[in-house]
C-alpha cells in the first residue's frame, strides 16, 4: 500500500509540473498569474509544523494555511502579523499611492488603496475565524514548481497544512484522491450562490474539491486608439469570430507594418494553452476527455486552429507563437497590436500605462457556446491528511462570505464570485468592465486538464503541433492527427 501511495503522489507531481503556472514568469507578475508568492522555504520535511489543536465542534483549533501571494502579509499567526504589516505599510515611502492611517479604516463601497488589500483580506478572515475559536497560521511554500515539489513531498510524508493552494496542479490532486471533498451542504451552497469559475474546475465525480476567492478567466481586450485609427468603432466589441477577424485584418492594413491587429497568444506552453484554449472550448472542442485521453484532432479543434492560423499574419513576425509570452504582452503594451485575449489584470495594467482600452467577453464562433479557462485562479483545498478538516472548511467558507467578496469588488482589479455581490446594480454601475469579467465566469468554465499519463510530454506534443499548424503550410488536420496518434501512444 505504501508503494502504491508513493506512486500515486509521484505521478501527481509528474503530471502537473509541466503546467505549474501560466508559463515561465513574464516581465510583469500580472502577466503570469497575478498570484505569485515571494519564495520562502517550507519545513525540510515537506509538511507543516502545527501546534497541538482540536477539531472537535466548539473546540479551539489552530489551522495552517498556505499563503497566496496577492493577499499574503507574512508567515506566522495572523493576529500577530497584522500590526507589523500595518506599521511597515505606513513606513514604506515607495508605495504608490502612499498608505495613510485612513486607509486602514475600510467600509463597504469605499475606494481602496490597493496596497492595503491583503491587510484587510486577512483581517476580515481572522476576525471571522476568531469568532469560531479558530486561530489562523500561515506558511509560504512559494509558487509554481517549488510549490508543487513541496506539496508532493508533504503528500508522501502525510504531513500537510490544513489548507493548501495552487493552480493547474490542483485538479490533478483531486483526481488522485489526495484532497477531501467539500461537505455536501457546503458544496450545494457554493453551487447555488457562486460563479462556476470559482469551483467548477475543481469538481470531480460530482464532488467539489477546491475554491478560488478571486479567479481569473479570459476576456477580449483592445487598444481603442489603434481600432479607431483603422476606421472602426472603438467602443464596439466584435460580435463573433468573423467580425473579430475582419476587425483585426483592418487594423493590420491600417498599420502598414507599424502596428497590427493581433488576436491571441499561441505559444507552445501553458501561457498559450491558457489563452487560446478558451477558443477551443468556445468552439465545442478542447484538450482531453473525462478519462484524461487527448482529443487533439476533433473537427472543432481543426476549425479553431484554422482560425488561429488566420490570425498569425496580423502580428509582428514571430510574436504569436513566441516561446516567451512576455514578448506578446509587451507588443500590446507598446501599441504594436490592437486585440488580445488575457486575464482581468490586463485592465488595471492598461489603465496604469495610459492605454485607453476596451474589454468584453470573448465573441463566439458561428456555432459556439460560452466557455472559458481559469487563469490566475488560486484554488484552496483541504488535503486528506489535514489535521483540522472541520476548521479548514470554515476557513474556505470565509472566502465566499459577503465581507470578503465585497472587499474584492471594491478593489476593481478582480471581480467577486458571490452572485449577490457581483449581480447587484451597485457593482454593475461602479465596475462595468469587471462585471463583464464576472459574466465570463459563468457557463462551461474549465481548468487545464491532466492527461492520463506523462502529462508534460503530451502537452508538448499538442503545443508543438499547433505551432507547426500556424507557422507552416502543412495540412492542419494531418498535423493534429499525427499529434493525436503520438499522444495516444503515451496515454493509453
Automatic annotation (TrEMBL):
Residue spans of biased composition, Polar residues class: 27-36
PROSITE patterns referenced in this protein's UniProt entry, alphabetically: PROKAR_LIPOPROTEIN
Protein name as annotated: Extracellular solute-binding protein
GO cellular component, one term: ATP-binding cassette (ABC) transporter complex, substrate-binding subunit-containing
Gene Ontology molecular function: any one: maltose binding
Record keywords, A-Z: Signal, Transport
Organism for this UniProt entry: Cohnella pontilimi
Alphabetized Gene3D superfamilies for the sequence: Periplasmic binding protein-like II
Region (Disordered): 27-58
Amino acid composition bias (Low complexity), ranges on this chain: 37-58
GO biological process: maltodextrin transmembrane transport; maltose transport
InterPro entries in the record: SBP
Classification via PANTHER family: MALTOSE-BINDING PERIPLASMIC PROTEIN, MALTOSE_MALTODEXTRIN-BINDING PERIPLASMIC PROTEIN
Signal peptide: 1-20
Source domain of life: Bacteria
Record family assignment: Belongs to the bacterial solute-binding protein 1 family.
Amino acid at each position: 500500500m505504501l508503494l502504491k501511495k508513493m506512486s500515486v503522489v509521484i505521478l501527481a507531481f509528474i503530471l502537473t509540473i509541466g503546467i505549474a503556472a501560466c508559463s515561465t514568469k513574464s516581465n510583469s507578475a500580472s502577466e503570469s498569474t497575478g498570484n505569485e508568492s515571494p519564495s520562502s522555504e517550507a519545513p525540510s520535511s515537506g509538511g507543516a509544523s502545527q501546534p497541538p489543536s482540536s477539531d472537535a465542534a466548539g473546540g479551539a483549533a489552530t489551522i495552517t494555511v498556505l499563503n497566496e501571494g496577492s493577499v499574503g502579509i507574512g508567515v506566522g499567526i495572523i493576529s500577530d502579523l497584522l500590526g507589523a504589516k500595518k506599521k511597515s505599510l505606513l513606513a514604506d515611502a515607495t508605495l504608490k499611492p502612499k498608505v495613510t492611517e485612513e486607509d486602514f479604516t475600510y467600509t463597504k463601497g469605499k475606494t481602496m488603496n490597493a496596497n492595503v488589500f491583503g491587510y484587510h483580506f486577512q483581517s476580515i478572515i481572522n476576525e471571522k475565524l476568531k469568532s469560531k475559536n479558530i486561530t489562523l497560521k500561515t506558511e509560504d511554500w512559494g509558487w509554481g514548481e517549488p510549490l508543487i515539489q513541496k506539496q508532493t513531498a508533504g503528500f508522501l510524508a502525510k504531513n500537510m497544512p490544513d489548507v493548501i493552494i495552487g493552480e493547474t496542479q490542483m485538479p490533478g490532486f483531486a483526481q488522485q484522491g489526495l484532497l477531501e471533498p467539500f461537505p455536501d451542504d457546503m458544496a450545494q451552497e457554493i453551487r447555488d450562490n457562486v460563479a462556476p469559475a470559482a469551483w467548477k474546475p475543481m469538481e470531480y465525480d460530482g464532488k467539489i474539491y477546491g475554491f478560488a476567492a478571486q479567479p481569473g478567466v479570459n476576456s477580449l481586450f483592445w487598444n481603442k486608439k489603434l481600432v479607431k485609427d483603422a476606421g472602426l468603432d472603438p467602443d464596439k466589441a466584435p460580435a463573433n469570430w468573423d467580425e473579430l477577424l475582419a476587425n483585426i485584418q483592418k487594423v493590420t492594413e491600417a498599420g502598414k507594418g507599424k502596428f497590427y491587429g493581433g488576436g491571441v497568444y499561441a505559444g507552445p506552453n501553458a501561457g498559450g494553452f491558457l489563452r487560446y484554449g478558451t477558443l477551443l472550448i468556445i468552439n465545442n472542442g478542447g484538450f482531453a476527455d473525462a478519462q484524461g485521453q487527448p482529443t487533439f484532432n476533433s473537427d472543432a479543434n481543426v476549425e479553431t486552429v484554422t482560425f488561429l492560423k488566420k490570425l498569425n499574419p496580423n502580428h509582428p513576425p514571430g510574436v504569436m507563437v513566441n516561446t516567451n509570452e512576455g514578448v506578446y504582452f509587451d507588443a500590446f503594451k507598446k501599441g504594436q497590436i490592437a486585440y488580445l485575449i488575457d486575464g482581468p489584470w490586463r485592465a488595471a495594467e492598461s489603465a496604469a500605462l495610459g492605454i485607453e482600452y476596451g474589454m468584453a467577453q470573448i465573441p463566439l464562433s458561428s456555432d459556439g457556446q460560452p466557455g472559458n479557462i481559469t487563469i490566475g485562479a488560486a484554488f484552496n483545498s483541504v488535503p486528506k491528511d489535514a489535521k483540522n478538516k472541520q476548521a479548514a472548511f470554515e476557513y474556505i467558507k470565509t472566502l465566499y462570505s459577503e465581507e470578503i467578496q465585497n472587499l474584492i469588488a471594491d478593489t476593481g482589479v478582480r471581480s467577486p464570485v458571490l452572485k449577490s455581490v457581483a449581480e447587484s446594480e451597485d457593482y454593475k454601475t461602479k465596475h462595468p468592465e469587471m462585471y463583464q469579467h464576472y459574466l465570463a465566469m459563468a457557463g462551461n468554465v474549465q481548468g487545464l486538464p491532466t492527461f492520463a499519463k506523462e502529462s508534460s510530454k503530451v502537452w508538448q506534443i499538442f503545443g508543438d503541433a499547433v505551432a507547426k499548424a500556424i507557422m507552416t503550410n502543412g495540412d492542419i488536420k494531418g498535423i493534429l492527427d499525427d499529434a493525436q496518434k503520438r499522444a495516444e501512444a503515451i496515454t493509453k
